[in-house]
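tokens incoming
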């Protein structure tokens, strides 16, 4: 029986997958034109699966000798050109022996001077191959410095000699646009990089995220094999949670079919619980996301989004491009992080250090029926913030939202294994909305709502706006009361110097707590 794939490219024999044909049309056309072109997409977006399908389709057509070659073998070798060339040629030969019939495999590679070995080897192969060569170098952007530039120049030099004595079409695939030089340092500007024939890039549409219909088609494959159905609300929730990112769609599917008994259908509540499990385990297609969030380039994009300001407009185009190359930011405007999983991971990772500093016992905030005592939690947070805010806020990597992250870190710590928090942020709303769900002893759920906002110098009426924002959240969640946490950032006194909890009412007469810190 097949399953969902989370460990790498999909194998149709073992994994549920979507036909690659809709993604291949543009690539097939470019190969027929003899183009040398680029494919740029974040990791785990189905790039390698699609490229392998492209090579397989070209090979089975009988017109081309097409091969995907991993360039990542050269990554640890840095600028050592001789060893990079040797590793690339070994990767090429091993891939050919595995994926090509004997008559299409390369001959022994000729001896050649350092810096010309790729050119010489590909020329020798093209001269004897009975079909035009099509080579896909996957992970080309993992090569470094002089080695990368020399390999690329050899491909450019051979371009005019195709197809008789050089590959007819070459594809360079990776996370980053090789037409731009990689950043040399955290804030170094991007400079023009790759030139020559590699002027065409496959459109993002060819490697776009899955639509709701495609997610339905993928999950229905599991239904056909096991009779376990996904209802329509579950499909919609899966699209919202994953934004269609292929890896997350697969990871969510795997989590669902692993945790929901086979005799049960899969509903929206199952999807919500599975999402929280994935977030708890920090399942993400972005390697080392926490480290990425610390990069100045990423912070300049994400911080204003978290703060709910329009200052993301100041972010340099290079920073936006970098965040999109990582798969962190949606490909179109407005600038945003798509999908419930990514939206939940970012504040969780940024606030994780606070949780490690909280010594309060979460059990003290729960009643005998399992309900969270929100007022007791707020009073305890007030003590924690008064004691530690000065250092926690001063040392924060994201100072614009440091108090809000302190609160979130405390909250995450208090609800561990008892409930979950949904955090809504982004846009230009000037606040972070939090809704809590806590599982009660009788199986019901307790729902709570919070609005987090900061008051800065020259910004009057922040409290009134925050209470109005809370009203919107209470309407959306159908709740009777909620909490505003308002942080004073006007600089008159140190953070946490005076914390007060008061009661107020919203415009519709709902009771609301206001914690001013």
């Amino acid at each position: 029986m097949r399953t969902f794939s989370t460990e790498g490219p999909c194998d149709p024999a073992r994994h549920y997958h979507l036909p690659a044909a809709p993604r291949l049309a543009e690539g097939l056309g470019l190969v027929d034109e003899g183009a040398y072109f680029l494919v740029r997409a974040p990791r785990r977006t189905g790039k390698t699966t699609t490229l392998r399908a492209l090579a397989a389709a070209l090979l089975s057509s009988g017109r081309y000798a097409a091969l995907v070659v991993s360039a990542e073998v050269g990554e640890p070798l840095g600028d050592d050109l001789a060893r990079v060339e040797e590793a690339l040629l070994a990767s090429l030969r091993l891939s050919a022996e595995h994926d090509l019939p004997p008559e299409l495999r390369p001959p022994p590679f000729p001896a050649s001077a350092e810096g010309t070995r790729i050119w010489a080897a590909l020329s020798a192969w093209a001269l004897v191959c009975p079909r035009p060569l099509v080579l896909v170098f996957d992970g080309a952007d993992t090569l470094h410095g002089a080695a990368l530039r020399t390999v690329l120049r050899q491909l450019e030099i051979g371009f005019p000699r195709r197809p008789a004595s050089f590959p007819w079409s070459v594809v360079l695939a990776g996370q980053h646009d090789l037409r731009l030089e990689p950043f040399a340092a955290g804030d170094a500007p991007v400079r023009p990089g790759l030139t020559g024939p590699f002027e065409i890039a496959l459109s993002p549409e060819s490697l776009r995220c899955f639509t709701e219909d495609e997610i339905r088609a993928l999950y229905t494959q599991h239904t056909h094999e096991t009779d376990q159905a996904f209802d329509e609300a579950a499909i919609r929730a899966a699209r919202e949670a994953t934004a269609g990112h292929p890896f997350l769609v697969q990871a969510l599917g795997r989590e669902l079919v692993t945790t929901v008994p086979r005799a049960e259908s899969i509903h929206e509540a199952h999807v919500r619980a599975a999402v929280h499990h994935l977030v708890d385990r920090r399942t993400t297609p972005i390697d080392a996301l926490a480290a990425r969030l610390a990069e100045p380039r990423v912070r300049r994009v994400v911080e204003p989004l978290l703060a709910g300001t329009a200052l993301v407009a100041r972010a340099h185009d290079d920073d936006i491009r970098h965040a999109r190359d990582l798969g962190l930011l949606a490909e179109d405007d407005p600038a945003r992080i798509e999908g419930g999983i990514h939206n939940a991971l970012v504040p969780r990772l940024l606030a994780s250090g606070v949780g490690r500093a909280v010594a309060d016992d979460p059990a003290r905030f729960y009643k005998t029926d399992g309900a969270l005592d929100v007022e007791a939690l707020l009073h305890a947070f007030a003590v924690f913030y008064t004691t530690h805010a000065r250092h926690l806020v001063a040392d924060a990597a994201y100072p614009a939202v440091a108090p809000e992250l302190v609160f979130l870190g405390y909250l995450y710590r208090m609800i561990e294994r008892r409930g979950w928090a949904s955090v809504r942020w982004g846009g230009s709303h000037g606040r972070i909305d939090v809704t809590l769900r806590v599982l009660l002893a009788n199986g019901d759920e307790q729902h709570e709502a919070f609005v987090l906002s900061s008051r800065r110098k020259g910004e009057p009426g922040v409290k009134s706006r925050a209470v109005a924002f809370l009203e919107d959240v209470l309407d959306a969640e159908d709740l009777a009361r909620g909490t505003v946490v308002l942080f004073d950032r006007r600089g008159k006194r140190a953070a946490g110097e005076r914390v007060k909890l008061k009661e107020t009412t919203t415009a519709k007469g709902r009771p609301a707590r206001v914690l001013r810190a």
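note: The two ends are 56 Å apart (CA to CA).
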